[in-house]
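Section 4.2 – Deliverable D4.2 (structural model, holo form)

The reporting period included a commitment to supply a predicted holo structure for the target in complex with coenzyme A. Inputs used:
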Amino acid sequence: MWDYIRADFWRRVELISAGMPRKRAIILTLYANGFWAVMLFRLADWFKNHRLSPLYYVILKVCEILTGVDLRGKFGKGFCIMHGRGVVVSRHSVCGSNLTIFQGVTIGSKRLFHGVQTQKKSISKAPRILNNVTIYAGAAVIGDIEIGNNVTIGANAVVLKDVPSGSTAVGNPAKIKKNVKKR
Ligand SMILES: CC(C)(COP(=O)(O)OP(=O)(O)OC[C@H]1O[C@@H](n2cnc3c(N)ncnc32)[C@H](O)[C@@H]1OP(=O)(O)O)[C@@H](O)C(=O)NCCC(=O)NCCS
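Output (structure tokens):
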């Protein structure tokens, strides 16, 4: 757990520290709603991995009430939520390292309870997100799809199909934009 917490903390500091002293970036990180949502998720996940499921659910509920972030699923190291309110991630989602998401992002199944109903057959209907992905404010990433490495998803995009590595997806339904600047 500590490895994950360290990686999440320092990645967020790196992300926000452009143009400001490092000490200020650290203070702003400790002050951020999204940072505490990630910390509570890591703690909850630790309890789940140690067969203390009731605590897992209690902490996730506390996280949801305090931060407005409803996190399930799996997240690699360097996970960062900016602002945070209104973020929902399905428990069947699998996300790689260095994922950054902004307020109002949804990552989940195409239909209500789709993943839950098929869970016994171990079929995940939620997105698989590889490494170094940024999902901007209000975007929805939906269904049994794969988002490649180094992908950017624009604000308010509705992503219903696979997004190849290195690309940017914008719009509703999302399309790959070829002429956007590199991050
Ligand atoms: C996706 C994004 C990162 C691309 O930025 P960029 O590289 O500067 O891209 P550009 O502004 O040059 O736009 C390139 C093309 O994509 C389109 N586009 C960019 N973002 C879009 C979006 N969110 N939805 C629909 N189309 C979008 C532009 O209209 C433009 O289309 P055109 O080529 O037909 O004219 C950016 O537009 C975006 O959505 N940022 C989100 C910011 C955000 O959520 N901030 C929250 C801060 S709290």
